[in-house]
Amino acid sequence: MSHAKLASVFNKDEKRVDWHDKALWFVRHKRDKAAHTVKGWEDLRNLGHGIKAHMLTNIDKYLIEFEENAKNNGVQVHWAANGEEHNKIVHSIIKENNAKKVVKSKSMLTEECHLNPYLEKDGIEVIDTDLGERIVQLAKEPPSHIVLPAIHKNRFEVDELFQEHLGTKPANGDPQYLTNEARKHLRKKFIEADVAITGVNFAIAETGEFVVCTNEGNADMGAHLAPVHIACMGIEKVIPKREHLGVFLRLLARSATGQPVTTYSSHFKKPSAGKKMHIVIVDNGRSEQLSRPDFRASLHCIRCGACMNTCPIYRRSGGHSYDYTIPGPIGSILSPGKDLKKYSTLPFASTLCGSCSDVCPVKIDIHTQLYKWRQIITKETPQPFVKKQSMKVMGKIFSKPSQFETVGKVARWSLRNLPKSVINSKPNVWGKARDLPIGPKQSFDEWYNNRNNNKKD
Amino acid sequence: MGSREAILAKIKSNKPEPLSLPQIDAGIFEEGLDIIKEFTKKVEIVGGNVLQASSNEDVINQIKSIIPNTAINYSTLENTQDFNTLDLATVKNPKDLEDLDILILESNLGVAENGAVWVSDNELPIRVLPFITKHLVLVLSSEDIVPYMHQAYEKKQNQSSGFGVFISGPSKTADIEQSLVIGAHGALSLTVFIK
After folding, report:
1. What integer pLDDT is reported at residue B153 of this predicted model?
2. What would the 3-class secondary structure string for chain A be?
3. Do B95 and A221 touch (CB under 8 A)?
4. Of A233, B73, B157, B187, which is most buried by a Cβ count within 10 Å?
């Protein structure tokens, strides 16, 4: 289904859209406040960009260095070409250890690979332990935001879900009570778990260690309690040196939520005595994206979600309208590389205002890439008849100033004189759910010329 | 090994022309911070508390009055054995630490810009301790607080511990309607003592 169609589902509940819009804008505002207090913020972004750009030019070398150091640290390293292979590897590690219960902290990669259903099919219990992820898991929904997975749900819905699945008391949506109940429920899961799966925020080639950032402490509770820790990472998570963490950890949380740093920035290097640590390095289309000069910078992404929080379309259409693991502007430049046809409407889910590029901590030219995907998509995938024809007509009108003037005059007159039912009739998508402005008597050209003539007098 | 070679070969043929690695000049971020003041402010912003202490004994006394009547306490500070009600040698499985009330740890690195305090295997007898405890207390010397993350990594450049973590405040979440709740899966409170 197209983005516009799925967005209209979300848009049915106007109050919710307003709340969603404002809540995310508030997070964006917190990001601004945090960024503006850092002296040299733009230099920091430039460094983040530069380190990632350099990494991509040497990514094979850094992955080999990372693997070698991780192995020397006593960590087992696996490689997966795609999601299917990733799932098989994780499954076989679980089987090797006769494990039945898995706790997972947030990992967009395992969402991308659809790991949970794969493991559940074999009777393995997989519990998402980030509170937001647990909420959407109980609701049998995918996350709608990469940092705030349950941002589309209100407190009353969470209350109901917890009553149904965790046996909590009706609490009128009290977040303190509900969070505390989730803590108790998940504490039990942490204690019982045989295997902990985490994502990876940064993998350091120089030392073979990896860093996982959380606010809740769920990655650490899982990884330090279970006898086996599996960390899953995309190839682009590798960074050359430990000192580069100084740059990325300063950027990440400030961009994501406006915090100066996440509560926990955990550096995993060696398994503790008697325990096992595995790393699964996954490609799943990333090396393909690397081959596209216009789009490879999308691999710089550190998954902060700032582009979503600022995007006027995302805020009003909700994460599920993108129907892709990573929604929002960054998802709209990553997804066409995976399936141009399926995600052909996503690069159009943008006003090209450029706000996403402005807030991106690693300076990905997101809105430029959205524009470039549009050029490819209109050439390579069939476009709706009305859109194609109207583009042709518009092209002709714009090519001749005299024609443009005449059409402008007619349009302005029509906006003043025709009844709303005609102006907002079906073919005019601009009249959908909004009133068009009253047509001015003069065009800008006329106004400007008049003004100049009057000046001369 | 098949996929490893295939992935690396694909990357090799698809990767862009070399670009140099930018150097970090930490000097450009300097703004002459009052380090203790900034550190205190940031720990408070992230939901923690900062107190002064003259000695380890002082830390214990203050904590006992702030969080009284706890059953299970553990401290790694020197000369505080009387405080401990738990013998880690008897802990066979980290899961047995579930009822820990107070954990006091020493640290030798704090960061002013974000209130983060570093603890690693060198200070941690069991890794899960600072996460599973209800109340976490970290003790560090004022001389060990650096202004920014850049200096923190400079200081830890050669650390060889198997695990280390920057902790900034108690655990928290805002996953229900963006309302901040302190106390998610990790510690419910954090107190930092500066000696």
Report:
1. 97
2. CCHHHHHHHHCCCHHHHHHHHHHHHHHHHHHHHHHHCCCCHHHHHHHHHHHHHHHHHCHHHHHHHHHHHHHHCCCEEEEECCHHHHHHHHHHHHHHCCCCEEEECCCHHHHHCCHHHHHHCCCCEEEECCHHHHHHHHCCCCCCCCCCCCCCCCHHHHHHHHHHHHCCCCCCCCHHHHHHHHHHHHHHHHHHCCEEEECCCEEECCCCEEEEEECCCHHHHHHHHCCEEEEEEEHHHEECCCCHHHHHHHHHHHHHCCCCCCCEEEEECCCCCCCEEEEEEECCCHHHHHCCCCCHHHHHCCCCCHHHHHCHHHHHHCHHHHCCCCCHHHHHHHHHHHCCCCCCCHHHCCCCCCHHHHHCCCCCCHHHHHHHHHHHHHHHCCCCHHHHHHHHHHHHHHHCHHHHHHHHHHHHHHHHHCCHHHHCCCCCHHHCCCCCCCCCCCCHHHHHHHHHHHHHC
3. no
4. B187
B40 touches chain A (CB under 8 A): no
Residue of A nearest to B7 (CA): A81
Instruction: Please indicate whether, in this complex, the C-beta atoms of A179 and B173 are within 8 angstroms of each other.
Output: yes
Question: Pick from A180, A187, A225: which is nearest to B94 by CB?
Answer: A225
Query: Confidence band (pLDDT; 50, 70, 90) for A432?
Result: confident
What CATH class does A38-284 carry? alpha beta
Token digits for A373? 């995907």
**pLDDT confidence of residue A456:** 67
Q: Do A265 and B15 touch (CB under 8 A)?
A: no
Searching chain A, which residue's CA lies closest to the CA of residue B187?
A217
Domain extents in chain A: 38-284, 295-380, 392-456
Q: Residue A457: what pLDDT?
A: 60
Q: Answer whether A51 sits within 8 Å of B31, measured CB to CB.
A: no
Rounded CA separation A97/A78 (Å): 16
Does the beta-carbon distance from B153 to A44 stay under 8 Å?
A: no
Q: What letter would DSSP give residue B51?
A: E
pLDDT for A225 beyond 90: yes
Which residues are CB-contacts of B30 (< 8 A; sequence separation ≥ 6)? A39, B147
Q: What does the pLDDT read at residue A369?
A: 98
- pTM of the predicted protein model: 0.95
ipTM: 0.97
Query: Is a pLDDT exceeding 90 seen at residue B158?
Result: no
Please name the member of A54, A183, A235 whose beta carbon is closest to the beta carbon of B185. A183
A346 to each of A240, A290, A330, B185, how far by Cα in Å? Answer: 33, 20, 10, 36
